[in-house]
From TrEMBL:
Pfam family, one: Transket_pyr
Keywords carried by this UniProt record: Metal-binding, Oxidoreductase, Potassium, Pyruvate, Thiamine pyrophosphate
Cofactor(s) demanded: thiamine diphosphate
Protein name according to UniProt: Pyruvate dehydrogenase E1 component subunit beta
Principal EC category: oxidoreductase
Length: 392
């Protein structure tokens, strides 16, 4: 089995992907059914509420999180329920309140047992663009303290807020920080797409003993998704570091981040209807650590890969995924070079028509997949089979 070969070579012990004869993928961390309609905003709010009810050490701080109930109403109702000592409005100083959160999260340990009364803060940034004011606290304090203390101090903190391009907010409010923070050892970084992702990933982030950056999307807060009842229960968790195969296919793998998962799914449906191309769509979910196993197994199955993200092309998440494929056993299975669909390599324009052209579109994804599938894949497969037959 391909999965067995991968684990043997790389020494991994992650849960395998189990494919049915029809190519469908079964993963225990995806909900089943769709009986409840929930917005991403409601899913995040529920995750925060349940975490605060479960653990009195969970506190929320940030600009307008209390009386105004959050710039995007994600913290709605929490001040009334938990009071001003646990839902805390801060001054407009990202470096200041991020530093307060990091210090409050420091948990000294003796052996494996925690000491002291440290908190588990959730720090909200009005936008991740403003978090650049706090990058020293996030990278040098939160991410590095566990390592630099020889494992004696844990930093269980969550940084969350909207990331990436919105609508008409121009260059200083439109950047994607997935690659920025995904570069840093000591951080975990997640990017939810739908309500299931938002609820499960934020819950997992708050439970984790490491600093976690949750990169949400302003455009997605009001979007509704059907989820099963289990998603809204307190014990539903999406494990960090595990991707989700959102759609099974056999012709090309598309790995997408955040709201661009929706773009990839739409492109996949249209490609099947128009060209009969079967696209497998992977919702990456976690930027750091990346789920290598799911991606590599899928590429071994489809022999092609396209990545889709809204960030800049240079040194992006897609570039990292392509590099990992080239350095893995999947390289020998490729029938075409990996291809990236990204945001344009420009400062985000303010004009609506230019803004639209600076971001990936469904047509961009379709063109990339068609280029992949127009390669001489059948001939390459036949040649590979002939070589293997000659060696036997």
């Amino acid at each position: 089995m391909v999965a067995t070969q991968f684990i043997t070579r790389f020494g991994r012990a992650n849960t395998l992907i189990h494919r049915s004869p029809l190519g469908q993928t079964v993963r225990r961390w995806a909900s089943t059914g769709g009986d409840v309609e929930v917005t991403v905003r409601e899913a995040l709010n529920t995750a925060l509420d349940q975490a605060m009810e479960r653990d009195p050490r969970v506190v929320i701080l940030g600009e307008e999180v209390a009386q105004y109930q959050g710039a995007y109403k994600v913290t709605k109702g929490l001040l009334e329920k938990y009071g001003t000592e646990r839902v805390i409005d801060t001054p407009i100083t990202e470096q200041g309140f991020a530093g307060l959160g990091v210090g409050a999260a420091f948990t000294a340990t003796r052996g494996s047992e925690p000491r002291g009364g440290a908190l588990r803060p959730v720090v909200e940034f009005m936008t991740w663009n403003f978090a650049m004011q706090a990058i020293d606290q996030i990278v040098n304090s939160a991410a590095k303290t566990h390592y630099m203390s020889g494992g004696r101090i844990k930093v269980p903190i969550v940084f969350r807020g909207p990331n990436g391009a919105a609508a008409g907010v121009a260059g200083q409010h439109s950047q994607c920080y997935a690659a920025w923070y995904g570069h840093v050892p000591g951080l975990k970084v997640v990017m939810p797409f739908d309500a299931e992702d938002a609820k499960g990933l934020l819950t997992a982030a708050i439970l984790d003993d490491n600093p976690v950056c949750v990169l949400e999307d302003e455009i997605m807060y009001g979007r509704s998704f059907k989820v099963s009842e289990q998603v809204m229960k307190p014990d539903f968790v999406v494990p960090l570091g595990k991707a989700k195969v959102a759609r099974s296919g056999s012709d090309c793998t598309v790995v997408a981040l955040g709201r661009y998962v929706g773009l990839a799914l739409q492109a996949a449906e249209e490609l099947q209807a128009e060209d009969g191309i079967q696209v497998e769509v992977i919702n990456l979910r976690t930027i750091r650590p990346i789920d290598d196993q799911t991606i590599i197994e899928s590429v071994m199955h489809t022999h092609r890969c396209v990545t889709v993200e809204g960030g800049f092309p240079q040194s992006g998440v897609g570039a990292e995924i392509c590099a990992r494929i080239l350095e893995s056993p999947a390289f020998d299975y490729l029938d075409a070079p990996c291809e990236r669909v990204t945001g344009a390599d420009v400062v985000m324009p303010y004009a609506k028509n230019l803004e639209e052209r600076a971001l990936p579109s469904v047509d961009d994804v379709k063109r990339a997949v068609r280029r992949q599938c127009s390669r001489p894949g059948l001939e390459a497969a036949a040649n590979r089979a002939a070589v293997l037959a000659g060696q036997s």
